[in-house]
What does this fold into?
Amino acid sequence: MKTPAIALSAAMIVAACSAGTTSNAAPADTASLDASGAQPATPLASAPFAVQEIARFNEPWAMTFLPRGKQALITEKSGKLKLWQEDGPTLDVAGVPAVAYGGQGGFGDVILAPDFAASGTIYLSWVEPGSGDTFGAVVGKAKFVPGAAPRIDGLQIIWKQDPKVTGRGHFSHRLAFSPDGQYLFIGSGERQKFDPAQDMKANLGKIVRLKPDGSVPADNPFASEGGVTAQIWSLGHRNILGLAFDGSGRLWNQEMGPKGGDEVNLVEAKANYGYPIVSNGDHYDGRDIPNHPTRPEFQAPKLWWNPSVSPAGLVWYDGDVYPGWKNSLLMGALSGEGLVRMQIDGDTLHKSDRWDFGQRIREVEVREDGTIWLLTDGTDGKLLKLVPKG
Ligand SMILES: [Ca+2]
Ligand SMILES: [Ca+2]
It folds into this structure.
């Protein structure tokens, strides 16, 4: 969809004004920007932070801080789990599974169990091969054992993508626990196969909801149907690369659209987000996919981007370190080479900032001290700290 010239010029004025603002309230004239696919990027020079390089990793994919934030676990796509230490060397964590590395696949997400302080349990996702030339993402839990030679013990697979299919794209395999610690949510991509996102006999193109041991909660919306259908929380998703709960306990996801149409959605039980029947993007070969407004029975995104920014990573921010950022969602961008901030305003999201890093951002995390840390993409991927400007 072509952006009307009048909307774009309004967007540029908003972007120019937002650099110096410290207000949580979005000006009324952001409405046209929020309702369009547009969001101009702002140079880093005007950002309320400086960017500090901390360390480098080989194709880092995801990270999570350990309690107190002096250490972090970082996955590398080719199959390593690293323990980064602020006051010590970065160490390899032993005992990790073999991963099917290639295309978009390999090691995926890493998160802490809600009871990590007592149990040491972590959750990991990765890609495993199936029969023939097929692949699928899996999720496992294990105990993290710290020390000079850190390792994981008792790795147990608790979930698998079903069915395994050919190709090495759109695994998603992003993980998030509900704030009450009772439910594990998994983003499961449609594996570049389109129709599985609407197929209730496949758990591809879905967000699934499990108990921490991988069993299906009795109150899942399709629990009575059994099989992988019982796992499904929401459907019609494409390639989910970020899940985050906000302070109200609501789940948000971002997902890559096809050619255009990247989305941020408010995730609701039983809701159908419409892919591949509708998208504000279109097929890469130029064939049309009807836009969301043509089929109001599907849940429309709260925000969307066209051209694509290629979202990666999503966190909810509630700190005070960067003025005016309280109650925001922060999302990395791969092709968009930057960081997107979205202010939450009730059920509305605003395109509040888009900072131009000139580097593909793969992952976003918040440390206990309220500072934001990023991973850049690629074989010389960087761990970056956003140091607030005084
Ligand atoms: Ca993370
Ligand atoms: Ca379309």
